[in-house]
Amino acid sequence: MPFNKSARDLPCNEQAEQAVLGSALLSRECLYNVFSVLEEDDFFLGKHQLIYRAIKSLFDKETPVDVLTVTEELMNMKELEAVGGVEYLKLCSDAMVALSSIDHYINIVNDQAVLRRLIQSCRDIDYKFLNNEILDVNDFILESESAIKVATERRRISDFQPAKTVAERVKMTIETPKEAKADGVIGLTTGFNKLNSITQGFQAGDMIVIAARPSVGKTALALNFAYRAANRTNKPVAVFSLEMPAEALVRRLIGIESAVSLTKILTGNVFGVERAKVANAIYKIGNMPIYIDDTPNIKLTDIIAKSRKLQANNPDLGLIIVDFLGLVTTTQSSRSSITRQEEVRKTSLALKGLARELKVPIIVVSQLSRDVEKRGDSKKPILSDLRDSGSIEQDADVVMLLYREDYYKNTRDSSSGNKKLGNLSSHERFEMVKEQKEKITGEPMGGDVSLVEVNVAKNRNGQTGMSYLFFYKSFGRFDEPSDEWLKEMREVNDIAGQ
Question: How many domains are contained in the chain?
């Protein structure tokens, strides 16, 4: 470290360190307690670090630990004189008067170590300031915050909790239903009944991944989640948009609310009833608690810092959306040697940690690999298609894989009318039922509608399953099929049970 002062300048309890080492020399049970909490650098005095190292070496070799064996190990390390000889080892063993007090002394040593690291981190921050090593204030603040977090993260670990104690807490949560229990949702609503029944809503602390090939509708679905969450719960929603400017996102939100073509909204070519719908949507969206950050290539540290700040100002923050994972950067320099897989791994792990820290669900949009395109007849995605890193699948609590058959042109077969129902593709079955629906209602479904399969392929805390949504591509809106429509679909080929 660039800044150091004498040993007397930093907190240290020599007697507590002696007592801890002495307990390890006297009792194997105490030895386990010491190793479960403390590491070598938690001891401040160099001779105590050497003694700890010798004890740990013997323990790893499954050799009995006592004054004699540690003396021999220190002799082999050529460090016996450095620690004060066998006399100092005996002094340490004498310092531990009551083995029952070991946890107390371990906590003292641990607390002193945390304080030293915290003080040293603050000194390093001051050193960089005094020596003009600050190139960017925002980066400096984030790095300093991270250093302090690292310095304090090894604070005293918690003890085991008896099952009885935890069971009592669970009993209280069962006896006190959560707000949305009446709707069958214990988290933040997805806005769609079928998805709610599968996931029980978006749970606080969860990372939810929406994955699909480009242009299938993953960003549109993420925005629909944001819109429905803000509209139905009035909880703040944060959207980090790395691909699209804020104006484009808001136009999409207006399209979702108004059901007016995005092209018309973009060009201003709206008249009559549609103009009134757009005006009403602008007013409604403008009053929703949706916060957008459209910084391109935003750094991971900025996402974390901005999310913390937003929650500090809005304690009821309900949802965070990151669109999309592949554009988040973790390094300060584009010349960094870090691989893309490693960058995605770090980002995925950090966003999962952020969700748990803030106790807020985070939706992450991700692309699927091209392996989907290389498969034969079926292009339906599977978990292993997640792009760049297996850590996405590992870190995610929920993974939703989107599939739209009409996305693949080869599914459009003009000769489908001659096929048997069992041989029709999902897209062809959808077109048949869509045509039947339009005949019954006398109105076109409009909006360049497609059927999207939302496969909840992973759900750490519940069931998996398939949900079907209408995607109105013209105005970017998702809606659920009615029960009557699903019944008609089942009559064609029973897809609702697939």
Answer: 2
